Amino acid sequence: MNTHLSTALNLAGRGVPMLPLRAGKVPFGNCPACRDNACGGRPNMKTPGPCTCPRPCHAWAAATTDLALITGRPWATAWAQAAAVAYHPGGVGLTVVDLDHADAVAWARRMLPVTRTVTTTRGEHWIYQGAMQSANAVRPGVDIKSTMSYARWLGPGTGTMTALPDTVRALVVKEPSPVRPASRAVTVPVPVGGGECPHRMPAYLERGIAMAEQRISKATNGVHAAVYRVFLAVLSAHGRCGCLTETHMARLFAAAQAKGESLRHCTDAWANALTRLGL
Questions:
Q1: Whole-prediction pTM value?
Q2: 3-state secondary structure at position 233
Q3: Is residue 161 pLDDT above 60, yes or no?
Q4: 3-class DSSP state for residue 86?
Q5: Are the C-beta atoms of 261 and 223 separated by less than 8 Å?
Q6: Nearest Cα to Cα of residue 257 among 266, 269, 249
């Protein structure tokens, strides 16, 4: 039994979905119908096509904990030719932050909570407990590998694995693109049916703005996304009755800037929230 197959069997026995990789960190096409991407998979077989033989047989979808499948045909030949072994992080509730060079590693050390790390050829894998959407190039040299993705197995790593932080989740949050520039003076339409404020008491709005300021000030991870979510919540609650003033908006911007956000980001986030709500 070769080393890669032995590793795969050991990890699969502990519930980690495994698969073999050929040279270039690319999965095998594991059945005749899928060779040369005949099944419709993307180039290099990195994502599965619509094959049902009887299930997707390559890329992350092929990862399995079934020891009989791992040792049986057609994988017996694949393991003999494998250049590396991979696993499906999302399938076992993990997220791998793939840091591809020294600058990316330096960024992670400044910005991310300490967790288990694994040394790679050019950088490091930071592994967190918790699954999320995968995405490539979320910032220079940084990929997120979790659901519907695979990562090379390079050993157990060092350090204690910690919970997936909002800082990492926020890397794949994309705000809607603004369709019009924001203005410092916010004009919002009155509600259909007369325009009377449904909140009735000014104290309701004041309490809402104060709570929004507090939520921004307490954000510790993913401040960029947190500011957008707070703006969206405030406009959702108060944006249609004509109560919001430039003073309220300035208070929220000041809270965001105190957390390190730029005026440009505040303006864009406010515009995006208006667009999202159709205001």
A1: 0.59
A2: helix
A3: yes
A4: strand
A5: yes
A6: 266
